[in-house]
Amino acid sequence: MAKRTANRGRPDAYDSLIDAERDALLQSGRKVTRGDLIRALIEASDLSPGEARRAVDGFIDRRGGFIPSTSSTDEARTGWIDDLLDAERARAARDDRPMNRQTLIRAVRQASELTPREVRTAVEDYLYRRGGRTPTADRWRITAIGVIGLAMTAIFVVWILLRA
Question: Which of 47, 127, 153, 161 could bond to 52 as cystine, CB 3.0-4.6 Å?
Fold first, then answer.
């Protein structure tokens, strides 16, 4: 990669380079850490370690305090899935039929060659982004129902004992 030295004074001068390095690390299957980005930026530019650290910290700060875990190609890839699932939900609403997670998974499986795990993850991400139900929300709901049932049973037992 060519060394870049121009625009050193701008806070976002190295964001595109950091993005490219992050995408390369993600495509290699590695989890991207702050240290990885700093090392990659030092290798790809003539920045000192302190300047690279400040550039990466600024990059992370401008993205809400975390390193984005998806590359720009991943975001483009999920766009068609969102479109497909939006259309499937609209079709279900129009036909007045119930819509559930399994129906969405089936629609993605029929339209793609993704593995079952990738399909399930994509549908769960879609539901999370669209405000739908997630497995964690289901778990909490089931736990809450169990706790309420247990409390009602305890109240009933105490009531029976007090009557006797």
Answer: 47
pLDDT digits (tens, 9 = 90+) for 113-145: 888 888 888 888 888 777 665 445 556 677 788
* Region for residue 75 given its phi and psi (left: phi exceeds 0; alpha: psi -120 to 50; beta: otherwise): alpha
Q: How many CA atoms lie within 13 A of 115 on its CB side?
A: 3
CA distances from 120 to 33, 64, 70, 72, 147 (A): 26, 27, 17, 21, 29
Hey, where are the domains in the chain? 1-69, 73-133, 136-164
Residue 110's nearest CA partner among 101, 119, 121 is 119
Contact 31, 5 (CB under 8 A): no
pLDDT in tens, 70-101: 655 455 455 778 788 888 888 888 888 887 88
Distances (CA, A) of 154 to 23, 37, 141, 158: 55, 56, 20, 6
Amino acid at residue number 110 = Q
